[in-house]
Design a protein that fits this description.
Order of helices and strands: EHHEHEEEHEEHEEHEEHEHEHEH
Distance between the termini: 21 Å
CATH architecture of the largest domain: 3-Layer(aba) Sandwich
Helix content: 25-40%
Largest sheet: 6 strands, mixed
CATH superfamily of the largest domain: HAD superfamily/HAD-like
Number of strands: 14
Number of helices: 10
Radius of gyration: 18 Å
């Protein structure tokens, strides 16, 4: 039995960060053939649910680069790599030192934060607030026993690089960054425990669900661990050079529905 694992942004999603009708039809074809698939993404569950609803994603799904696993059958969220309060303090201190607002996420989906500084951070806060009236709190309200999954931020490129330099010195932290959708001058940052990874989470799911092989698709640095454990690993044409080098093969670009077109050929779906 094979398990297909998709990254979302830059991979399964098109240039508008959506699942195109062609890709949606392809997923339905996979399901009709009894071919299992799931996602392993850097996104949060809340930032993915609208995209995934109605697309046949019935198996457990991996979010925040392996920090969180969502079990749709019993509506349960699990985590195996939480941050300590000391580690969070280091990330928060590095962020505030570079005038970037850190957003601290907990297992119950509450977001804690200091007062936002710029327009982009205010927009993020509005986005978080739309999820529910009790979703956001000021950082000084963070409980000492909070189950902290990750810390995220968006800021100017130079500031994010400065934070990365500090975080990289921490033994049990791993950080990922990339160009933000808000513009080339902005970069996003995600920091979580180094024991969490897409690859590690998928290995656990593979064993729990009894799959024999993993076929994965990804485009960025946070997909390296996934490529390392997969039996077949495919990179879209828009992927980072290091991911292309690690791939079984390079296929079509995400904004040309490259993954869906490859799947139709690979599994003779047409």
């Amino acid at each position: 039995m094979e398990l297909i694992v998709f990254d979302l942004d830059g991979t399964l999603l098109d240039g508008n960060a959506e699942i195109s009708s062609y890709t949606s039809d392809t997923l339905r074809m996979l399901a009709a053939q009894g071919i299992a698939y799931t996602v392993a993404t850097g996104r949060t569950l809340h930032a993915s649910r609208t995209l995934l609803d109605g697309q046949g994603f019935a198996l457990p799904q991996v979010f925040k680069n392996g920090v969180l696993v969502w079990h749709p059958n019993d509506q349960r969220l699990t985590s195996g790599a939480l941050l300590t309060m000391r580690e969070v303090d280091r990330v928060v201190s590095a962020s505030t030192r570079h005038d970037v607002t850190p957003f601290v996420f907990t297992l119950d989906a509450t977001v804690y934060h200091p007062r936002p500084i710029n327009r982009i951070e205010h927009q993020l806060l509005v986005h978080f607030d739309r999820r529910g009236a009790d979703n956001t709190r000021m950082l000084d309200e963070l409980p000492n026993d909070a189950e902290i999954t990750h810390v995220s931020a968006i800021g100017p490129a130079a500031a994010i690089r400065g934070i990365l330099d500090i975080v990289s010195a921490e033994e049990h932290l791993v950080a990922y960054s990339g160009v933000a959708y808000e513009g080339q001058q902005w970069r996003w940052l995600d920091v979580h425990h180094s024991n969490a990874s897409k690859g590690g989470a998928i290995v656990e799911l593979k064993e729990q669900l009894g799959f024999e092989r993993v076929i994965c698709f990804g485009d960025s640095e946070n997909d390296v661990s996934l490529f390392e454990i997969a039996d077949e690993a495919y990179a879209p044409g828009n992927a980072a050079a290091s991911i292309k080098d690690a791939a079984t093969a390079v296929i079509g670009r995400h904004d040309e529905e490259g993954i869906a077109r490859f799947l139709r050929r690979r599994f003779d779906l047409d």
